[in-house]
TrEMBL record:
Superkingdom assignment: Bacteria
Sequence ranges of Basic and acidic residues compositional bias: 24-33
Lineage start: Bacteria, Pseudomonadati, Pseudomonadota, Gammaproteobacteria, Enterobacterales
Species, as recorded: Morganella morganii
Protein's UniProt name: Glutamate synthase
InterPro entries assigned to the protein according to its UniProt record, in alphabetical order: FAD/NAD-bd_sf (IPR036188)
Annotated spans, Disordered: 1-33
Amino acid sequence: IDRTEQGAVSGIGLIRTQLGEPGPDGRRRPKPVEGSEFILDADVLIMAFGFQSHPMPWLSGYNVQLG
C-alpha cells in the first residue's frame, strides 16, 4: 500500500501474472511476471475476502481503520 507523507492512501502495488503449465491435477496456476510490478493509483482501498466478516489483525501494522 502506497501512502502520502500525510499517511493517506495513494495507491497499491500490483504485479502482472500469467498462467503456468498444467500441474498434476491439470490446473494451470498463475505465476508472477518478473519485472512487471506497478503502482495502481487510488485514494480509497476496500479489502474484501469471502462472504463473512472476520478480524484481520495483520492490518494493524498499516494503520488501517476497520468498521
